[in-house]
Amino acid sequence: MAGAETVDTAGLASLLDHVDIDQDRLQRYAVDGVVPRAATRAHSISEVGRVQSVATEHDFAVIVHGGRTMLGLGMPPRRYDMALDLSGLNQVVDYEPNDFTITVEAGMTLAELQRHLATNGQFLPLDHPHFERATLGGLCAVGRGGLRRNSFGGPRDWLIGMRMVKADGTPIKGGGKVVKNVSGYDLPKLFAGSLGTLGVIVELTFKLRPQPASDQVLAINAPTFEAALEAGRAASQAAPFLNGCAALSADAASEARGLGARVLHDQPALLLRANGLESAASEVLAQALQAAREAGLEGPERSTGAIVETWQAVVDLETQTSTDHVRLRLGLPPANLGRAQQIVNRTFPEATSWIAAADSGLLFTEVPSADADTITALRNELGPLQGRLTVESAPTELKQACNVWGPSGPGARLMHNIKEQFDPQGILNPGRYVDGI
Amino acid sequence: MKTPTPLVLELIDAIGEEAVVWHDEDLLVYEYDGTIDRGNPDVIALPATTDDVINLIKVANKYDAPVTPRGAGTGLSGGALAAKGGVIIGMNRMRRILNVDVENKTALVQPGVVNLDLGAEAERHGLAYAPDPSSQRACTIGGNVAENAGGPHTLAWGTTTNHVLALELVTADGEVQWIGHDTRDEPGYDLVGCVVGSEGTVGIVTQALVRLVPRPTAVRTMLAIYDSVRQASNAVSAVVASGIVPAALEMIDKMTIAAVEPVLNTGFPLDAEAVLLVEVDGPESQVEAEGARVEGILNRFEPREVRSATDPEEREHLWAGRKGAIGALGQIMPNYYLLDGVVPRTKLPDVLDGVYEIAERYRLPVANMFHAGDGNLHPCLLFDEREPGATERVLDAGGEIMRLCVDAGGAITGEHGVGLEKRDYLPWIFTEADMETMKSLRAAFGPTENFNPCKIFPKGHGCGEAGHQHAQQQIAKFGPKAFV
Among B162, B281, B269, which residue's Cα sits nearest to residue B220? Predict the structure, then answer.
């Protein structure tokens, strides 16, 4: 930290335009209780470049902020001098609907993008919690696939080009504006999921899809969450072209109902989604429903016209939590989901809010508290099932005591090498990423 | 009698005499791939296990010998050529499908598995492996991973990178590690995303866990014959604009028709200008309705004829003209140079006009076959290499066509890779800083300078600048930079 202390806060403010050093306002940029010394909003790529070159020269640690919907993710920062807020960098750069591609600045929200695309009957196939606030730069930096990842994949699968600013302020790019491209290394893939540790994502180009002619959602109650999960597994096997297959516990269903998913009752449920031409979507749902019934779900199915509200309510639950709760995300092969859920439930009998993507092996839950040893023991139990458990948000004390990402895999050596190449000074989001990166 | 070098002897020590090829006459077949370029390897090593690969790389590193990984040698950018000599590591003996997990829809394979064999195995389980490059009867999964291979059906399903979940990778320093995870839930950088498409410049893949997709319950293929490329292009635009995402959307032009018709009896009229191939797949009712809509659209643009098939054998017949196109070109000229450019789809008609203009100016027949839905064009320049100056003319025309794609907002390769062939053109789309960043990513994988050297990036010590004079001329003509 030697370098950072060479400039005091007032000096820091004099180096850049639009620097905010007001202590009260800086609170909103706090990460795990660490408040930066300054914050700045950038409105252009060149401004981001200027911030980074100053940060490099004076060794400021920078954390990039988008919509702050996933700030719980990651370890507490090792150091943190400046927040770089990109929410003002939010314009459409280039959109040719007939090419089915769009280039936008990183601070644009997912909801704003979808509204823009909807005027041409197009959309970006990604689910992300709190899409009214979540920025595209942020959700790509997080890089996780969502509840419908079985049919959508993740941000990496739709990104075709990216502009970034390196740690030292140099602007670079990877990919391009064409849907199929193998010219040079795939830097957009490297940056997707890198949590702001390699450079600042400033502009993104996505390939797009036409909106389906018909989009349908059905809910059916289940006696227990486990039964909903098992039925979901059967449904996704019987109807592989399902667009979404979410199982919810009673508490999750009732929370989602509170957020706008009126089709859910206060009971465990299976939520099925299919789209395409109307007849095809109906056919897929009918197949899925039949399999779910054969797997033991009784009672009437309920459909809803509020597709987006219903689904987004469930997606929002992934991160819906008070900061003092511990939110867990487990990813693993879908066939192992049932066994994994039993293990997690045995470890945390107090967990009552569960959501699962039964078709892609994702499980979310939250518990009021946990300790590091319990998390480690749970990870050990889940290992043989290929389970990867991430603590997606937790009180800072727990984060300091446990590794929220889990033990480093065999790729850690390469990851450190990459970080060293891209940010040798360690000024980008230091300490929050995997294996201390 | 040639005597083995110390390098050869030590490679033999490492993996056995029968797995090392070093006699001049045996090396010949490894001098070529699918391009015009060639390389001269000193020795070929054919590992049977991951340990073999590790040992080979360590021996090569000890002797400072360049290492070039190779699959089936069907590549179209010179990626598998030993540009600086040294050791070619041929992965063909590691050709086992180790596991198919039906419920989780994954397959674990060795890199030498042939693409079509994996497809057939997946099919036995009611699944499919989506990437289907035209060379799929021969090309291997390892090569597909290196090149991020595409194919006609990637329009709906994406390319290889969308289908690889995890890799066992031996890096240039001889270290082995698994990267990635069954469901992409391994925290950390997307190393798999970095390795797929890296053209064998950071390591050798020794196992791949790939994603399989559900097999569509119904497929319908439609073929439409048009009197002009414009009409066909407009039909493509209309199909795409209709909101349907076809599984494939392909076009071939008049020269290609002239090549395939006599050999494959496709029934294409020789005076037609373009044949369009559209395939829709998915659940039965979807295919029925979408097929009817597509057929309606194709008919709006005054085709001579529209054919349609749902039966596998008939569909195969409709595909024959497209899939057999490259092979049939030998009918017209002994040699061909197959290009791979990509442009925003709406620019395709203009770029095609430009391609015909350039070919005419260089007095070269050109056959076009392309993935019209992706904006990925494959102009094929026909020539006879025995004719003095013909090869140079072809390479010059190729450079100009690449520049045309770049100026239209496109890129220099959609699915074949940069390789040896197009490395000099990389500065047309990337700045020095972009390329330095890519090189720094490469450096993170260890001592990679000697690992598939002279590929992707321009220049490079000992890479024979003179061999790419044609590219230098194009650079001089257009200037080094475009950066669209």
Answer: B281
Residue of B212, B203, B211, B233 lying closest to B68 (CA atoms): B203
* Min Cα–Cα distance to chain B from A189, Å: 5
Chain B, nearest residue to A336 by Cα: B104
- Domains in chain B: how many in total? 4
> How confident is the model at residue B472, as a pLDDT?
65
| 3 state SS of B256 | helix
Token code pair at residue B457: 């990036």
Across the interface, of A182, A237, A406, the residue whose CB is closest to B415 is A182
Contact residues, chain A, for B433 at CB < 8 Å: 166, 170-172
pLDDT at B247 over 60: yes
B 307-366 residues inside an 8 A Cβ radius of A? 342-346
Range of the domain at B230: 218-325
Domains of chain A: 1-211 (3.30.465.10), 214-317 (3.30.70.2190), 326-401 (3.30.70.260)
Chain Cα centroid distance, residue B381: 17
Same domain, B182 and B228: no
Is B437 inside a domain boundary?
A: yes
Is residue B168 a part of any domain in this protein? yes
Closest by alpha carbon to B295, among B287, B306, B283?
A: B306
Using the Cβ of B40 and the Cβ atoms of chain A, whether some distance falls under 8 Å is answered with no
CATH of the domain at B313: 3.30.70.3450
Does residue B484 form part of some domain? no
**List of chain B residues whose C-beta atoms are within 8 Å of the C-beta of residue A435:** 188
Express the helix, strand and coil content of chain B in percent, nearest 5 each. 40, 20, 40
Q: Distance (Å) from the C-alpha of residue A195 to the closest C-alpha of chain B? A: 9
Residues B370 and B391 in one domain: yes
Give B39's contacts (C-beta < 8 A, 6+ positions apart): B31, B68, B78, B81, B82, B83, B84, B85, B420
* Same domain, residue pair B393 and B467: yes
Q: Which two tokens stand for residue A312?
A: 């987004």
Nearest CB partner across the interface for A210, out of B101, B243, B283: B243
Distance of CA B362 to the CA centre of its chain: 26
DSSP state of A360: T
Place of tokens 């070093």: B22
In single-letter form, the type of residue at position A379 comes to R
Domain with residue B422: its CATH number is 3.30.70.2740
Do B280 and B220 meet the contact criterion of CB atoms below 8 Å apart?
A: yes
B433 and A170 within 8 Å at the Cβ level: the answer is yes
- The model's pLDDT over B387-432, given as tens digits with 9 standing for 90+, comes to 999 999 999 999 999 999 999 999 999 999 999 999 999 999 999 9
DSSP letter for A352, please.
Answer: -
Judged by DSSP in three states, B277 sits in strand
- How buried is B255 (Cβ within 10 angstroms: 0-12 exposed, 13-18 middle, 19+ buried)? buried
Contact criterion met (CB < 8 Å) for B187 and A434: yes
pLDDT tens digits for range A79-110:
999 999 999 999 999 999 999 999 999 999 99
Contacts of B205 in chain A (CB under 8 A): none
- Residue B474 shares a structural domain with residue B352: yes
Q: What would the two tokens of residue B323 be?
A: 């899939």
From B325, B353, B371, the end of a domain falls on B325
Of the candidates B251, B119, B165, B441, the residue with the CA atom closest to the CA atom of residue A418: B441
Chain A residues near residue B374 by CB distance under 8 angstroms: 178-180
Relative to beta strand A82-85, strand A62-65 is: parallel
pLDDT in tens, B5-55: 999 999 999 999 999 999 999 999 999 998 888 899 999 999 999 999 999
